[in-house]
Amino acid sequence: MRSIISRISGGGANPLNYLLAGILALAFALPAFADDEPTLPRPDPAVAEFARGVKFTVSGYTGTEVLTNFPVLVRLSESTIDGFLYSDFNYTDGTDLCFVDMETNGVPYEIDTWDRSGESLVWVTLPRVTNGTEFVMWYHSVESGKSTVSTGDPWRDYTGVWHMNDTANTGVLLKDSTTNSLGASVTSGSFAQSNGRIGGSRIPTKTGTSKDSQCIEVSLSETAKRTAVDNLNTAANGNAFSVALWVKPEKYSTRKTDPQSAYLVGRKVADTDGAWAIQYSYDSASHYNKFRLWASETSDKSVKVITVDTSVIPDSQAANGNWYKLYAVYNGKNLAFYVNGTAYVGTATANAAAANGNNSLFLAGTSGTGTRDFRGEMDEVRLRTGASSEDWVTADYDTVVKANFLLAGKVETVEIVEKPVFVVTLDDSGASHAQFTATVSSLGATTAESCVLKAKIWPTASGEPSGWTEYASGILQDVPTTFKVKGLSTATPYSYKVLVVNNENVEANEIEGTFTTAGVGVAGTGGDITRVGDDWIHYFRVGVDDESGDPVDTYTFAPPSYASTVRALVVGGGGPGGGPGGASSDTSASTVATTLGKLPNALGNPRLKWETSEQ
Q1: pLDDT above 70 for 11
Q2: Structure confidence at residue 208 (pLDDT)
Q3: 421-429 and 261-266: which strand pairing?
Q4: How far, rounded to the nearest angstrom, does the alpha carbon of residue 592 sit from its chain's CA centroid?
């Protein structure tokens, strides 16, 4: 450093030379960061560690409103994200995945479609969206990302969300992703499609001109489900709600007669029924591309009729694989209608309020008339409380169709130390002992060779001790290790924690649990086995014969596999109170007859604690 500064300042007393020398000195003094030092915000490593991260930036939002709890569509593909590989996931279904904002708060998400050979689709509900909003996806974790990083409900502002990607044609309830669980039943004419607008989709009814009376129905026979759908349209929110869906309508010229008009979403069974429905008309050239909201306060009233120009949804294109995003926004009095994010002005026909009625919720038709079922393909149906703004509607369309709405950065790799992974089972517990078996399924780091097992077991009421006791060492992967704890108090609740540490001194996540020791058994119904010196002892408290009242002098006991010869010790002589008496006998058989003898009365204490150690 001295030579660098000397050469720079050797040209004279120019102050810039001294300034440059100072900058260089500061630069050389700064600490160097390792290549694997994370630069992206990530979840607390104590909760879950992730080895891969990629930042996403909202870059195609054109609105001025700050959107809250807005779902953006994240597309994952090895061909579009630099460094992204499905093989980097520890779980083939993508569950070792999580999203966080730039303050490391968990962000709610739902996997719509997972395709390891192509493009996967994930809905991520961001707390705030403006152009430039950033968030990070993390993956490659031993733990499931969603289960360890608190995220919440991605659809908490929605009444119903049907992705329409269920693969069965019949005998299935189309899943509703909200907590309202509004599963939708399908008719025999409904067909699942694998190549919908967003993942899978659904053809609600068969094609042609016949009147099928087919639909997708959400039964509201359960009170909670009816209340959820009724609350979509209530005075509490100004009777305002929004309906969004993608459709690929059938070409008009192939079906000129019926259905004349289709109910897309609604609660009408018949045209004269007092309930709301969004209707799409395409029965003739003069009625083609007309949309309306039927309100039906006391009789059918059309709130607004909106005609979308045929240049937007031309009949010549309707059968050529074109999808259209329809969005109906009802503010309690009037209807706004959008196609592909663009608003269309209609003619108001009545100032009416939409009525709920008493029917089910129907998608793509109704069960009551064969002239109102929707012909075509349907995908991603959503019901949202409140009137969505124009910025919201446009962004909801753009997040699906605009390639630059969301931009992905390069995958960042973080070196994490792999923890050992193990399971532990409580095999047995008696009056004074507990036996556990631990199996290490992964030693953690690739250089790890074995593990040490530690545990702490304590009476729950006394509080957790600070220290650990080592019970086994040299534990190999996939080799079960059994350990026993002796000298426990009878009839006492216990807590335990078990831990394994590999030879690289990396700890696994602790496993904890509880158990309660048995009381000293009455006659042949229990007791405990413990080891004293070279002897295995089975002790029990003598009971009383129910009929004669005499002490029971015979009991049945099957020794465990690890103790073939057991000395039987009878404690007490007068039942649960414990009088003097007792006897002992050696056996390897399952039945022992004892003759009552004399033992100190103190041994009749039903909470006797045996201080023993295995030799």
Answers
A1: no
A2: 44
A3: unpaired
A4: 55
User: CA geometry: angle at 262 spanning 283 and 364, to 5°?
Assistant: 150
Location of structure tokens 């004669």: 548
Q: Give 445's DSSP letter.
A: S
Provide the pLDDT confidence category of residue 216 given band limits of 50, 70 and 90. Answer: confident
> Token pair for residue 526?
């229990």
pTM beyond 0.90: the answer is no
With H, G, I as helix, E, B as strand and everything else as coil, classify residue 146: helix
So what's the pLDDT on residue 234?
83
CA distances from 512 to 147, 208, 295, 424, 496 (A): 18, 62, 58, 9, 6
Token pair belonging to 2: 């001295």
Return contacts of 339-345, CB within 8 angstroms, 24+ apart.
Answer: 339/308, 339/312, 339/313, 340/312, 340/397, 340/401, 341/393, 341/394, 341/396, 341/397, 341/398, 342/312, 343/390, 343/393, 344/306, 344/307, 344/308, 344/312, 345/306
Q: What pLDDT is attached to residue 48?
A: 75
How many residues can be counted in the chain? 615
For 263-308, the pLDDT digits (tens) are: 889 887 776 677 888 887 765 555 566 777 777 655 555 665 666 6
Helices 2-9 + 15-29 axis angle, to 10? 160
Of 459, 491, 606, 592, nearest to 537 by C-alpha is: 592
Establish whether the linkage from the previous residue to 559 is cis, with ω within 30° of 0.
Answer: no
Among the listed residues 7, 39, 33, the one whose alpha carbon sits nearest the alpha carbon of residue 20: 7
User: Which of 243, 489, 278 lies closest to 374 in space, CA to CA?
Assistant: 278
- Mean pLDDT is lowest, of 24-38, 80-94, 294-308, 596-610, for 596-610
Among candidates 289, 393, 292, which has minimal Cα distance to 335?
A: 292
Run of H or E residues at 421: strand 421-429
E strand intervals along 25-108: 52-58, 67-76, 97-101
